[in-house]
Specification:
The chain is α/β, with parallel strands linked by helices. The protein is built from twelve helices and twelve strands. The protein has a domain of 234 residues: NAD(P)-binding Rossmann-like Domain (Rossmann fold). The protein binds nicotinamide-adenine-dinucleotide and 2'deoxy-thymidine-5'-diphospho-alpha-D-glucose (DAU).
């Protein structure tokens, strides 16, 4: 069976991994719509750019008319919507872009998809899917125990989380009101190749290589559940092809860790893999504790029982192998990340409380 998949945000970290993964499968054609914000990079797609089953258009999802034209030309069987503003710290500094893209943009995309889907017939209409790629942050913060499942109430705390929660609600409302066949996946923290060096793991690696301090927010005891990006994109295709319409699926790595332990682990890998720039006492010497993130969620953990039971999906990478692969990748790809530090984002602290 051949599938035509319209991907939004396919020039970002997870989106580009998803596009590469889709094109490694048989009989899938991809149209990638991306605005190319600071967080994107078409170099991530060099390996597929000449593939006859792939096309890219530089388009803002908020540009309804342009998106509508792409639907008409491409005639997708499915939409996988990843385009978003994604960095929590930036949402603290400036929430407006998050509301614009994540909420208004998602609604605009839903409207176009719904108009398009309504005009399909037979199997093409029955089999159409709108898959929204969302986050565990919509559920808020956990204490020391427990895990989010698909019935957990929404309690988003940061402007980013609130914008994704709003988008999730709109996606489900289009299903309940108009019948659009939607699916939502809520995933935990991703890491791996091509992640923009503002997020914890790549930021710590690139700063360490440059001998800069490694800023841990607060006490470093906040916990995240980490998933290697290749496992996420595998889950996305599994859900898209076998998930049930109108359902939400949690995706996670079953790999909880405190931030301080993640950074120490990265430092240990760097001690071995990058001895030439190692500080005398090892990279851990660079760790510093800084002011906490305002509204910092304490802990996220995902109960992934539903996707395991219903779809047989589970992550393939352990945290330790994933971190080792990621450190090795960043050491081998300085030509990819160094230009960001020079031209786009020099690694400065973002998302501080006003007045600090
Ligand atoms: P990213 O920031 O690396 O990439 C986002 C992409 O979206 C970029 O290519 C950007 O240019 C594009 N984009 C932004 N605004 C756009 C607009 N208005 N129109 C078109 N394109 C636009 O993000 P990511 O980490 O790859 O995350 C992808 C999706 O997965 C997001 O929806 C995010 O909320 C979700 N998610 C991310 C994680 C994570 O840990 N990174 C975890 C769970 C869910
Ligand atoms: O949980 C899924 C979410 O994970 C995604 O939806 C978001 O798009 C993604 O950005 C990520 O959000 P986090 O806020 O958890 O990721 P971040 O990498 O910014 O931070 C991870 C943890 O590390 C968090 O507890 C804050 C902390 N941190 C972060 C940075 C950048 C530090 O201690 N120091 C830092 O310099």
């Amino acid at each position: 069976m051949s599938l035509r998949i319209l991907v939004t945000g396919g020039a970002g970290f997870i989106g580009s991994a998803f596009v590469r993964y889709l094109l490694s499968q048989k009989s899938i054609t991809v149209l990638n719509l991306d605005k190319l914000t600071y967080a994107s990079d078409l170099r991530t797609l060099e390996s597929v750019q000449d593939n006859p089953c792939y096309a890219f258009r530089k388009i803002d999802i908020c540009d309804t008319a342009a998106v509508r034209r792409e639907f008409e030309d491409f005639q997708p069987d499915a939409v996988v919507h990843l385009a978003a503003e994604t960095h929590v710290d930036r949402s603290i500094d400036g929430p407006a872009d998050f509301v614009h893209t994540n909420v208004v943009g998602t609604c605009s995309l839903l409207q176009v998809a719904n108009d398009y889907w309504s005009n399909l017939t037979g199997d093409r209409q029955r089999n159409f899917r709108f898959h929204h790629v969302s986050t565990d942050e919509v559920f808020g913060s956990l204490g020391e125990t427990g895990a989010f499942d698909e019935t957990s109430p929404y309690q988003p705390n940061s402007p980013y989380a609130a914008s994704k929660a709003a988008a999730d609600h709109f996606v489900l409302s289009w299903h309940r009101t108009y019948g659009l066949p939607v699916i939502i996946s809520n995933c935990s923290n991703n890491y791996g190749p091509y992640q923009f060096p503002e997020k914890l793991i790549p930021l710590m690696i690139v700063r360490a290589v440059d001998g800069k301090d490694l800023p841990i927010y607060g006490t470093g005891e906040n916990v995240r559940d980490w998933l290697y990006v290749d496992d996420h994109v595998d889950a996305l295709l599994t859900i898209l092809t076998r998930g049930r319409v109108g359902e939400t699926y949690n995706i996670g790595g079953n790999a909880e860790a405190r931030n301080i332990d993640i950074v120490r682990s990265l430092c240990r890998h760097l001690d071995t893999a990058a001895p030439s720039t190692k500080p005398t006492g090892g990279y851990c010497d660079l760790i510093t504790f800084v002011d906490d993130r305002p509204g910092h969620d304490f802990r996220y953990a995902m109960d992934t029982g539903k996707i395991q039971r219903e779809l047989g999906w589970q992550p393939r990478h352990t945290l330790e192998t994933g971190l080792e692969l990621t450190v090795a990748w960043y050491l081998d790809h300085e030509d990819w990340w160094r230009p960001f530090l020079q031209n786009t984002y020099d690694g400065e602290r973002l998302g501080r409380r006003r007045g600090q």
